[in-house]
Amino acid sequence: MKVSIRRKEEVTILDLSGRLVAGEAEPLRSSMRELIARGETNIILNLANVPYIDSAGIGELVRVLTAVRRHSGDVKLLHPPERVCDVLETVKLFTVFHIFWNESEALAAFATPSNDSMEMDARAG
User: Fold this and answer.
1) CA 48, 53, 59 angle in degrees (round to 5)?
2) Domain ranges (residues) in the chain
3) How many CB atoms lie within 10 A of CB 10?
4) For residue 95, what pLDDT band results from cuts at 50, 70 and 90?
5) Does the predicted model carry a pTM greater than 0.90?
6) Roughly what angle, to the nearest 10 degrees, separates helices 55-70 and 26-37?
């Protein structure tokens, strides 16, 4: 797994590429530790180039979300491929993560107050 980090406005975007699976998630884990230590807790994880995710990868996404929320931040998922969406749906994480298919909408979501009961964006085809 490779992680590229960029910033837009007050949001940090991690462009992930490669499989998010057991034994390959350390680049994401270490990047998140560094970002949280610097107080960067408005995070978008761009999953467009993540072709596959397993249970360890799901666990890593949940750890990232938990750590960031503990520091009063939030994590949005961007462009998850259909295969990744299927896994997120199967394990009921569509109700936990805010998922977007448009980067500008994901960025704008940080400007509006978060409401845990708000409905997820409809899954784009």
Assistant:
1) 115
2) 2-109
3) 11
4) confident
5) no
6) 0
